[in-house]
Structure formats: structure tokens, C-alpha cells
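Obj: model holo form, ligand = G3I.
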Amino acid sequence: MIKKITLSLAVAALAITAKAQDYTPLKQIIGDDFYIGVAINPNQVSGNEDTKTILHNFTTITAENAMKPAGIIQADGSYNFTDADKIVNFAKENGLKMRGHTLCWHASIPRNYMKNADGTDLTKEELYAKHEKYIKAVFEHFPSDVVIYWDVVNEALNDGENEGRYRERSEWYRICGPEFISWAFKTARKYAPANVKLYYNDYNLVDPVKREKCYLMLKELVDSGVPIDGVGMQAHWSMDVTPAQIEESINRFASLGLDVQITEFDLTVYNSIHPPKASERQIVKYTLPYDVVEKAQADAYASYFKVLHENRDKISSVIFWNVNDASSWLGRGFAIRGRLDYPLLFDRENKPKAPFFSIENYYKSLK
Ligand code: G3I
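Output (holo C-alpha cells):
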């Protein structure tokens, strides 16, 4: 018990005294396990404190929004790569690799993109032709020595046990049916340079019900020769997620011969951000002050990195969703309006938190 208290005091002291960048870079701690990355926006490449944190710690980046269809396709149908290019040029100048996110996602459809002028839906054939032009332009535009991975389809599955496998409400599904998924991978492969790897990306993939839906979908794609290289487990987790659950998902997907990536890692201090019922979204599970919750979060992060390290042969990238608690989509009050969260390794001043040092301690314990 005394040992435990001393340890947590030591962790707290480290967290308080460490200045921004005055600590071992995360990429050095992780070593060759996998690319270690972060999702960023164009304001974070200007040389500010966030830029310093990115360059100090990470080897790969994802554009949080700038490379989504809604970030590139304009209202008049033209393409604007300005924001995306800021991020890609930053990656190129600094020797970072990138994941492209994403080509087909129901939540990133430019206004009226799937409609005729009279408001009716495009036909499947018209939509395929329009989006093929887009996919071709994307692969011609971005340098394939920088953007080496792409999320081809994002979040096409339903969560619940009593729902069908696919998200029927999606515009993609409504117009094309489930075949849009294989269409997207085949079309991406047609234009993607050979070295670029193609992924299916989704959240909640540690949940046994959704894991199985995803496994069956991936198996069908692989068995029918659809060109897919891997699966992105988003990893917007809560502390209820167990290392065993994570390991089971990694093994299940890897058993199909697919690469696994942890693509959008963060750890809310509240209960799941994807609870079964919308009404449960407001439940605050961890009501203690954050400096107490931080210890539990630090332990959880260390236990997750243990499982990721032990399965590093199946995992090519682990990527945090946002740089610090201030820029986090959860910390900005996006998921629950007005509610702050503390889900990442760096605080609002870019100082490494207890979870950062618990990951460092785990890696030290291996030596
Ligand atoms: O850019 C405008 C800004 O001009 C305006 O003032 C502000 C007011 O609300 O909105 C800004 O755009 C928002 C943008 O985030 C930047 O903050 C959009 O409305 C908002 O829809 C957008 O949300 C993004 C969301 O995906 C939808 O695209 C989040 O930042 C982003 O973190 C989130 O990321 C997703 C992944 O792509 C897929 N997996 C889940 C993950 C979290 O939801």
C-alpha cells in the first residue's frame, strides 16, 4: 500500500515538474514497436506549442478533418486541397508519415453531393462515377511516399445486437447498398500507388457484438478477393475496456491476414462515449477530481500499451486522436456539449501527464 502511494506521488511529481519538451519523446519510448502518431489540424503546424509537441513525440500524423471529403470537396464540386496540403507539407518537411482519413464516410458528405439539382438522389452509377473521379484526384494529388495508409471506408457498421450488420441510415448504404464497401476498395486500389495500404476504420471494435460484425464483413471482403490491407480500430475507449478485449479483437482481425492499426486513440475519464442508450451519455462515472482519476487513467493506459506492445507484430501504427486535452474533440466539448474531458497524454499546456509516465515506466520495466 505504502509502495503504491509512493509510486503515485512520484508519478504526480514528475507530471508537475516536467516542462513542455523536457522529457523523453514518446517515439523514443515506443522504439520500433509501431509508428506512433497523432491527429492534427492545420493550425498546429505553424510552429506553436502544439507543433513542438507533435515534432517531439510522434512519427506519423493524420489530418483530423482536412482530408475528409467534406474538407476537400467544395459546394460547386471543385476540390480545395489547401488545408490538407499544409499538413502534408509539414509531414514531408519533417519526415513524418501519414494516414489519409477518409474516402467514404456517411458523416463527411459535402452538402448536396449525392443529389441532383431537383433534390432527388443520384443513382448508384452516377454516385460511383462522381466519387471515382474524386478518389482518382486524391491519389494523384497526395505524395505516396508521405501518405502511405488510407482509410477507404469509415464506420459502415451498426453497433447493436438487434440491428443489422450495416448502417442502413448511411447515404452510401441507402443509394448503393452494402456493395459500396467493396466498390470503394476496388476503386481506391485502381488509383492508389502500389505502396499505399488500404484500411477499413471503425469505432467500438472491442465490443464483442461489433467485433463479430466487423470480422464477418472483413472475412467476406478478403475471401472474395477485395483489395483490403488492414483494419483501423479507432479506440475511443473508456476505462471499462479491458486489455483482454483489445487483444481478442487484434487477434481476430489479424487472423484474416490483415494489418491492425489503432487509429484514433483517446481515453475518456467518463463512461463510454458510445453507450448503448443515448440517455446514458450524460452519466459521469468518474466523479473524483481529475488528479485522482489521472492515476486510474495512467494505469489503464499502461495496461493498454502492454497489450499493444505484446501484439506489435500485428500492429503497424498507434495514433492518438488529437495532440492534447485542449485540442481533443472530447476536450473541446464536441461529444457532450460543454463538458471538458482529459483523454490524452498531454495536458492543456502540452505538459506530459501521469498516463505518459506510466507508459514510459512500462517500457522501462521491459529493459
Ligand atoms: O471548421 C468549423 C469552424 O469554422 C466553426 O467555427 C466550428 C463551429 O462549430 O465548426 C468547425 O468545424 C467543426 C470541425 O469539427 C472542427 O472543429 C465541424 O462542425 C465538426 O463537425 C467537426 O467535427 C469533426 C468530426 O469528426 C466530424 O467530421 C471532429 O473535429 C473530429 O474530431 C471527428 O473525428 C471523428 C473521425 O473523423 C472518425 N471517428 C470519430 C472521430 C470523432 O468523432
